[in-house]
Amino acid sequence: MLSAAFGALWSALTLLPELSFLRVTIMHPVLAAAMTLLAFGREKRLWRCMLAFLAVSALFGGAVYAAGLYRGAWSRSGA
């Protein structure tokens, strides 16, 4: 729950103009590492947990994007 709350807080903070640096691409792996540490900090195989976390995140993100394309919410050209 702490990891999810941290991710939600991060998402909300990126909307503030003063904190626009949080939207920089390099911050995404930093966020993923921080969330993984918060969620799985006591695990022996932390790297495996992080890779699984990223894989599941990519899977769900792709599924949401595909569902949006199917329903016509987004165009493939990004317009």
Characterization of the model:
This protein has 79 residues and is mainly α. It contains three helices and no strands. α2 (27-40) crosses α3. The model has no long low-confidence stretch (mean pLDDT 85).
SSE layout:
Blueprint: H1 2-13, H2 27-40, H3 46-71
Helix pairs in contact: 1-2, 2-3
Main attributes of the structure:
mainly alpha; about 80 residues; 3 helices
Please outline what is shown here.
The protein has 3 helices and no strands.
The arrangement of helices and strands along the chain is HHH
- Helix fraction? 55-70%
C-alpha Rg (nearest Å) = 15 Å
The low-pLDDT segments are none
Please describe the biggest sheet, giving its number of strands, its sense, and whether it closes into a barrel.
none
Mean pLDDT score = 85
Multimeric organization: single chain
The end-to-end distance, rounded to whole angstroms, is 36 Å
Count of individual beta strands: 0
- Helix count from the secondary structure assignment: 3
Shape verdict: globular
